[in-house]
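Protein details
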Amino acid sequence: IPLCHKHIQHITGNKCDTLGLTELGTMCNVTSNCVIVRDNGFATAFTIAHEIAHLFGIRHDNDKVCLNLNKEQNIMATSLIFNNNHYKWSNCSRHYFTLYVESDRYPCLNNIPNYKSFLFQDLNNKQKVGELPGRFSDLDEQCRRAFGIHFEYCKDLSHGPKCTRLYCREILSDSSLCITNHAHWSDGTLCSESRSEIKRCFHGQCRNIQDLQIINGNWSEWSLWSPCTRTCGSAIQKSERYCNNPKPENGGQYCPGQSTRIQSCENNPPCEDSVDTLRQRQCSIYNNRTIDLSLPIGVRFEPKYNVLPSERCKLICKVTNDYLERSFIFNDRVDDGTPCEHENESRDICINGICMPFGCDLKYGSNATEDICGVCNGQNRTCKLIKGQKIVANFGITDIITIPINTTHVSITQISSKKDLYYLAVKYINGTYILNDLHSLQLYNIKIRIGSARLIYSGSNSINESILIIGRLKVPLEIQIISISQSDLSTTIVHWEYYIPLDEKNFIQQYGDYSLDYYCDRPCQGFKQIKKCMIYEKEYDLIYCLIFKIPFEYIKEQCNNDCIL
């Protein structure tokens, strides 16, 4: 939308020397993702690039966030200085641009445009994509674009330095005054011509046209894989390559494709319950720091979980043992390889600030899931269902059932009326309560970690209370019903179901003993064939295969080895 100078004066009320204006980090905000740029001819391109970078959230090169990254001022300098640096992005700009584009900070960039971009068409039937602007606009045209249609190039300065500053004069004026906005001659402008060579401007220098051949970039070899981000649970390794073989030059294309590849670390053991988490280590960096004057001396931080899905890969830390539950966002993204949630609640991990899926096989991008028996990619054949119910009409505490170790998919429901005063309770076998007791009651839904398993409770306010335990229990639990009213003893029913592992011993107890005679082919040092089936590297007997219709195979075993031929 073109804005005239009078419009800007009407808005500001004063002379406006600002080259561009926009809001920081509003790329996907439909009400503010625009820029206002002063038309300075071809030099306007630098202002447009500068302001679009602000839309991405990139700050000026002298900002405090760039102090450790920059040694010079480039496109994101606070003012447009025409030297060779204004053609390049700084290390700080490059760092944050890559950071934001690789994350999900600006999801609107993932859409597919529904219009044909003008970049793939000729501009005024003169310029084609990739052509230098000076090839189709002489110095007079550059002056008209910079200062208006009544301006031309100052020919009085034609014997001065080439390609540096563009000087222009007003055609209708009697004055010989030449003015400049300090912009270079546009790249591609003819600056010297003879029989032996042709030179054109490039980045403020008059260079031989042979030196301006476009060089497209090419990738280097991939680097070695990095160490795993951690030695247990879901983890990743990285490998990088660089667009320097060769580097793009003179407007050549940057290398297409990814500069970083990722693979999962296989054969990692599960993390122990007490493992020092990656997120905990990142939060502990801020221990004893004066983040807020209201915080105590020696403050300590720990990870905050149960945040919004969009914030799972941010470093959000809360003050340890703080009744106010104060928390701080210390970083927009955690280190790559950090689990999206608590170590034992999800295998998914954060990569480039995005929560990426990991299957139960701990492989990146895998859809592998556990079956009801807790077996990765299982077929629900290695466990059996235990279920039952109990009617309760007692005051105080009533024992319901003890959930044994190694159970999976525990579901407990108390069916009652809204007015009754019965509540579910859970405790360890040593008597320590995990959920509800005679003195405390959890009214609303809550998640409780029990080792590597998660207990999800509906809250006592629910008419039908429910407890769901996801994962494998590594300790036995006792389920109870608590009644706190002796005057109104209505009846309640507790239903439960869970799965226990099915091994050969309890299989025989359930279906009876079964045996087959396998004959040795020789009286001494012989072999016999046995029908066996293998399930997840564990061997089961023939009867197990027959009843559960699992394919079996013949296995040769040595026999009669206690004799000498």
